[in-house]
Amino acid sequence: MAEGKVWVRRDREKPLRQKHPWLFSGAIAHAEAAQDGELVAVYDSRDRFLARGYWNSKSQIQTRILSWRDEAIDAAWWRRMLSQAIARRDLPAEDTACRLVNAENDYLPGLIVDRYGDWLVVQALTRAIDARKEKIADALLDLTGIPNIYERSDVEARQREGLSEAVGALRGAEPPATLAIKQDGIRYLVDMRRGHKTGFYLDQRDNRCLLRELAADCPKGARLLNLFSYTGGFAIAAGSGSHAVHVDSAYSALGLAEANTALNKIPAANAEFIQADAFDYLRHCVGAGERFDVVAVDPPKFAAHKRQIQRAARGYKDLNLHAFRLVKPGGWLMTFSCSGAISRELFQKIVFGALVDSRRRAQIVRQLGAASDHPVALTFPEGAYLKGLLLRVD
Q1: C-beta of residue 318 within 8 angstroms of C-beta of residue 283
Q2: How many CA atoms lie within 13 A of 332 on its CB side?
Q3: In the chain, what percentage of residues exceed pLDDT 70?
Q4: Rounded to whole angstroms, how far apart are CA atoms 334 and 367?
C-alpha cells in the first residue's frame, strides 16, 4: 500500500520539530492518500520532511510519530525498537514482573508490554498497533523467549480509535486465574485476565519500596490505612510489623489482598479487609476519631480530559482533607493522582488546599512518580501521568 502524506500547518510545526510524538487534527493542513492504521510521511508547509508515523482519521491525535528520520518502518525497524526498549530494563534478576515497553516513552506509541513470569501482556491502544500485533507478538516471542503472550486491549483509549475491546491469547497458553510474581523479595498474586491495567500496578513498585522503609521505622503495631487498596500492594510491602486496613469497593480485589497477605506470611490478625467506598470510609473514620501512622491514597483516574478537571479536583481535595485528619502527629501521608489531565503543579495545589482546610501542618519529604521501568520521554511530558507526594504530617 502506498504511503500517505500529511502536511502540518505552518503555525503548528514547533512541537513536532521538538519531537513531540502527537500530531492533532487541528495542526494538520491537509492529507493525501492517508489510510487509517497505515504509515504516513509528515511534511512542513514548505514540503520538507519532518517525520514518519501512522494515521487514524477517527482519532483526535490523527498522527502518532514513530521516527523523525526518513527511514523505512519495516519489520527490522520494529524488531530494533522492541529490542532497545527491552534491553533498557535493568531490574534485579530474581524479579519476575516489570514493564518492557512503555508506549510513547519508548518511542513505540500505542504499545504497552508487561511481563509477569512466563507471560507477556500486550495492550494495543491504537489502530496501527492493533493491525500489527501479530507481528509484534512474533518479535517479542523471539526477543524474550517468553512463550506465552496475552492481549489485554480492553481500555477506553481504543474507543477513541474506533476499536472494540480485544482480549485473549496471542501466543501460547491462557494465563491461570492468578499467577504469583516476585518484586523486591515480595510475592504478589496477579489476575492478568481481569485485573486493573494489565493485572497489577507495576508503576508503583518504587513507592511500595519507600513505604516499606517508612513502615520499618514506625513503632511495632503501627496502623496503616491503605485506601483504594486493590490487591493490597502497599500494605503487603509494609510487611508484618504493621496493622493494615485495606479498603476497596471491589470484593474480588480484597480477596486477592487477603491471599497476598497469607502468601507473604503476614499474620491474619495484622490485617483487615473492608469493602467500602473510600470517601464514605474516610468520613466514618474521622467521625469515629480514628488515627493512623501511615495513610496511602492511590485512587483510580479521576480526569482523563480537561473537561473533567474541576470535578476531579474536588474529589482529590475531599480525599486528602479527610486523610490529613486521620494521620497521627508525626505520621505519613502518601498520596497520588494518576490522572493525565491533572498536572503535578495542580495536584500539589489541591493537596495544599486540603491541608489548609484540615488545619494541620505538613512537609513534602519527596515528590513521587512511576517506577524506573516506566521511563518518561523528555519530549513527552504527558508520559509523567503518575504524580505523588510523600508528606510528613504534624
Answers
A1: no
A2: 22
A3: 100
A4: 10
Identify the residue whose cell numbers are 502527629. 329
* Distance separating alpha carbons of residues 19 and 382, to the nearest angstrom: 13
- Main-chain phi, psi angles of 271, to 5 degrees: -145, 140
The residues, any chain, with a CB within 8 Å of residue 171's CB and separated by 6 or more, are: 137, 138, 141, 147, 148, 149
322-332 mean pLDDT: 98
Quote the CA–CA distance of 324 and 328 in Å, as a whole number. 9
Q: Whole-structure pTM over 0.85, yes or no?
A: yes
Please give the pLDDT value at position 1: 65
What value does the mean pLDDT of the chain take? Answer: 96
Residue 379: which residues within 8 A CB-CB, separation 6 or more?
18, 19, 20, 21
In the residue annotation, 338 being an active-site residue is answered as yes
Nearest of 157, 192, 210 to residue 369 by alpha carbon? 210
**Based on the number of CB atoms within 10 Å of its own CB, is 30 exposed (0-12), middle (13-18) or buried (19 or more)?**
exposed
Helix (H) or strand (E) holding 393: strand 387-393
Residue whose C-alpha cell reads 489476575 in the numeric block: 191
3 state DSSP class of 374: coil
Q: Are 370 and 203 in contact (CB under 8 A)?
A: yes
3 state SS of 340 = coil
**Of 179, 185, 187, which Cα lies nearest the Cα of 262?**
187
